[in-house]
Design a protein that fits this description.
Number of strands: 3
Strand content: 15-25%
Number of helices: 4
CATH architecture: Orthogonal Bundle
Distance between the termini: 18 Å
Shape: globular
CATH superfamily: Winged helix-like DNA-binding domain superfamily/Winged helix DNA-binding domain
CATH class: Mainly Alpha
Largest sheet: 3 strands, antiparallel
Number of domains: 1
């Protein structure tokens, strides 16, 4: 829970599972999260090794985030948690 717990981490991984996304694309998909909070969670997740950050342009700054193999391995845990919540109407 220390690694996956916390608001937005599961949602971030879920949105990155199909393709890398630029920061603003991810922010639009997670419309309830402020950009400040999103940046903090992504930094934490990068330090843990769940996501990889790649700078694609310096002017203006543009970065993409991609799920790592370690992050991808967490998706099965999230899927089981989702199934459990649905089974118990949570």
């Amino acid at each position: 829970m220390r690694i996956l717990g916390g608001k937005w981490k599961g949602s971030i991984l879920w949105h990155l599972q199909d393709q890398p996304l630029r920061f603003n694309e991810l922010a639009r998909q997670l419309s309830g999260a402020s950009k400040k909070v999103l940046a903090q969670r992504l930094k934490e997740m990068e330090e843990i090794g769940l996501v990889k950050r790649e700078v694609i342009s310096l002017r203006p700054i543009a970065v993409t985030y991609e799920i790592t193999e370690f992050g991808r391995s967490a998706l099965c845990v999230l899927e089981k948690l989702k199934t459990w919540a649905e089974e118990h109407d949570i």
